[in-house]
Amino acid sequence: MVSTKVLLVAVVVVCVLVETLSAQRSQPNPNRRNRGRNRAGNRTRTAGNRNAGNRNRNASNRNAGNRRRCEEIEVPMCKGLVGYTHTKLPNRFNHTTQLQVYRVLEHLWAMIDRGCSQNFRLLACSLYLPRCAGRGAARGPCRKTCKVTRRVCQASLQQFGYTWPEEFDCNALPKKRCLKQGRHNSCSMDHTQCVDIDLPMCTDLSFRIGMSPNMFGQCNRTEIAMEMEQFRPLVESQCSPKLGLFLCGVYMPWCASREGGLTFPCQEVCSEVREACEPTYRRLTRGLPWPNKLQCHRYPASSNANYTCVMEDDVGAINLP
Ligand SMILES: *[C@@H]1O[C@H](CO)[C@@H](O)[C@H](O)[C@H]1NC(C)=O
Ligand SMILES: *[C@@H]1O[C@H](CO)[C@@H](O)[C@H](O)[C@H]1NC(C)=O
Ligand SMILES: *[C@@H]1O[C@H](CO)[C@@H](O)[C@H](O)[C@H]1NC(C)=O
Ligand SMILES: *[C@@H]1O[C@H](CO)[C@@H](O)[C@H](O)[C@H]1NC(C)=O
Ligand SMILES: *[C@@H]1O[C@H](CO)[C@@H](O)[C@H](O)[C@H]1NC(C)=O
């Protein structure tokens, strides 16, 4: 059974947090529009995008000169989640670094989580981070992968106010030497509930019940666990004793009981963890910024009376409103 309270709190929280994740995407942002134009091949240089010309020159230098090698995927919405581990850049949009790719996919992250699970993720990731295939050209998504995904996902994306990204132009994609879609799976937002936490990285905590779907709309716990795995090296670096607590609360906000009382890690915990771990994260990912999902403005401060948040792994200390 799902109590109305959990449902209401969850829906509010999901709205607030998902909206902030996608805010940059949906707001009219001149930089972003410029970037889109460049991606479409328009090389107009504008104040907001001074580097575009350099980036293209870099890319063409590299194309003309030495062949690029395969590199391990570090971009957090793709790493460990798409069935292959290495990519080769530049991609079809002439991005030469994973940082450039991250900046684009960051805006699509909420859509990737919300979309149609693996196929939408595969489409987005393989478009920007094509699978390295040895010496040959890297492999992006097949035309059919794109079309099938669009057919299944478009309506559900529209329901959440997203439009199919114009860069996902199915007809521009190849029919051969490309990546095929997998089985369709998805989860519904209608069934917010408190369920047992069975995430391998969260077994040491005293929190045992968590919200599903989480605040990003993810409810396939296999996939949540796969996404969390990318942070294991960071946890093992012991950059912060609270990193595990924080990550578990991010990926499965805690329910104090099956009946209700939703709690999050406090913003203070987030700030402490970020300060301690960001340099290590950058090093481990060869230069990526602290991921959007882990940014601290998303989590309630302990002074915020609207939410209950957690400072320590100490369930007994939670005072539910
Ligand atoms: C990428 O670079 C190549 C070679 O410099 C160029 O022909 C192509 O139009 C560029 N594509 C985009 C999308 O900018
Ligand atoms: C670039 O975009 C501008 C305005 O959006 C347009 O006027 C111009 O013709 C475009 N240039 C190319 C090469 O497509
Ligand atoms: C690429 O362009 C940037 C400027 O945006 C420059 O600082 C950098 O040295 C260039 N890299 C290469 C390999 O040409
Ligand atoms: C959950 O995700 C895994 C990994 O992608 C997939 O194999 C499985 O079918 C998904 N489960 C459901 C119920 O969609
Ligand atoms: C708490 O919720 C109320 C009503 O929704 C809102 O006006 C207020 O700004 C919120 N307080 C904080 C600290 O977010």
Describe the structure.
The chain contains 11 helices and 7 strands. It has helices spanning 4-26, 30-39, 52-64, 98-105, 109-114, 117-128, 143-159, 221-229, 232-236, 243-251, 267-284; strands at residues 71-72, 86-87, 193-196, 209-212, 254-257, 260-265, 308-310. Mean pLDDT is 82; it is low at 1-12 and 22-66. It has 2 domains: 70-172, Frizzled cysteine-rich domain (Orthogonal Bundle); 193-317, Frizzled cysteine-rich domain (Orthogonal Bundle), CATH 1.10.2000.10. With 321 residues, the chain is mainly alpha-helical. Strands 5-6-7 form a 3-stranded mixed beta sheet. A two-stranded antiparallel sheet has the order 1-2. The structure holds 2-acetamido-2-deoxy-beta-D-glucopyranose (NAG) (5 copies). One 2-acetamido-2-deoxy-beta-D-glucopyranose (NAG) binds at residues 118, 185, 220, 222-223.
Quick overview of this protein structure:
The chain has two domains: 70-172, Frizzled cysteine-rich domain (Orthogonal Bundle), CATH 1.10.2000; 193-317, Orthogonal Bundle (Frizzled cysteine-rich domain), CATH 1.10.2000. The protein starts with a helix and ends in an 11-residue tail after the last strand. Residues 1-12 and 22-66 have low confidence and may be disordered.
